[in-house]
Amino acid sequence: MATAKSKKTALQSVKGMRDLLPKDQAIWEKIRKVTRDLGEDYNFMRIDTPLVESAALFERGVGESSDIVEKQMFSIKSKDDIALILRPEFTAPVVRAYIEHGMSHMSQPVKLYYIGSLYRYEQPQEGRYREFYQSGFEIIGGESDPLYDAQMIMLAYRFLEEMKIGKLMAQVNSIGCRQCRPLYRKKLVDYYKSKPACKTCKRRLLVNPLRVLDCKEKECDPIKKGAPAMIDSLCVLCRGHFKLVLEYLDEVKLPYMLNNSLVRGLDYYNRTVFEIFSGESDLALGGGGRYDHLVELLGGKPTPAVGFSIGLDRVVMMLDKQEPAPANRKEKRKVFFITIGDLAKKRALPLIESLRRAGVHVEEFMGKDSLRGQLAAADKKGAEIALIFGQMEAFEDSIIIRDLKTGAQETVLLIKMVESVKKKL
């Protein structure tokens, strides 16, 4: 006789993991398309890293005291006793690939983007799964330029904007550097010693004090609000760096607010950190920051870097399922934007953005090369037109449009820039 125990039960997906059914594919295809299109628009190259990585990569890169390493990694025991992990985040694998494949010998900075699945062993809840998906963008190499920080925040904002998520707000903070952080860490420890913080915070205070600011327990909220702010302990260089990041955000009129408790959960961050929220949810939809020491920590040369990732499951949770498919994008056009001088560089971001929104495919060079060097770079990229924006043009609200094939050029007002460029393409 068949009993209840002997009856076969239907197999189900593993806890915290789920199927992406045919009815879900329209939204996921749109996410993939927006990721790919923005990658192309902002001159990023696609990279895919293995699903399985060495455990040492995350222990060394992410930090042994982080929640990921302490209790969230899916471990795999190989036959040769090598500790392997299902990747829990993307940045460390991307940096590992940057080092392993000699990308430091490529033209710097190297701009990479990705999309794929990650795995963390944590309690499933709304918008959070054990198998989850992210897309992200990284700028590795070049200079530790605050403009790249601002560009990453702007790109994360643009991604969510393209996905039709409204009421977006970026929260930003600076967590300093190796020089100024120890002093702040001491202030934080001294402050928390006499406070009735939760058990997790008391443990973090011993191994990684900054993580107490990331505590989600309600009993710790009043304590966090009274904690000393990192921004008051920044060294001169970090203060100047953060000031420029905010000035760049002001230039593009991107809505942001300062959050002194924002530290992010991974040990490799330094200086700028950020997260982006929608007014419709208290869950961060994406975030990232600067990580100037991770390449060196994983065996490479000292290399500045900055990046972010978007939590795609949370994005899907907020999307309207009936949203129509996006229209086909316009054909790409080749324009090279040249800046000369600090003032021109600061004002360049909104100008470049206005061109991209008008369907003009524009590449930019934000380094410190001469005009000749930048024109050579434009020629190498196969650009048809160069837009030259120097100190004088910045003061006069004008820009030079040069035909790189004939050498002919004209100066036009900035308000007519987009119209004039499109007529020439």
Q: If helices are DSSP runs of H or I spanning 4 or more residues, what is the number of helices?
A: 15
Arrangement of strands in the largest sheet: 1-5-6-11-10-9-7-8
CATH class of the largest domain: Alpha Beta
Structural class: alpha+beta
Rg over CA atoms, rounded to whole Å, is: 24 Å
Roughly how much helix do the residues carry, as a percent range? 25-40%
Number of strands: 16
What would you say this structure looks like, in words?
It is built from 15 helices and 16 strands. The chain has an eight-stranded mixed sheet with strand order 1-5-6-11-10-9-7-8, with helices on both faces. Helix 5 packs parallel to helix 9 (236-251). It has 425 residues and is of the alpha+beta class. Residues 321-331 have low confidence and may be disordered. The protein is 36% helix and 21% strand.
Quick rundown:
36% of the residues lie in helices and 21% in strands. With 425 residues, it is an alpha+beta fold.
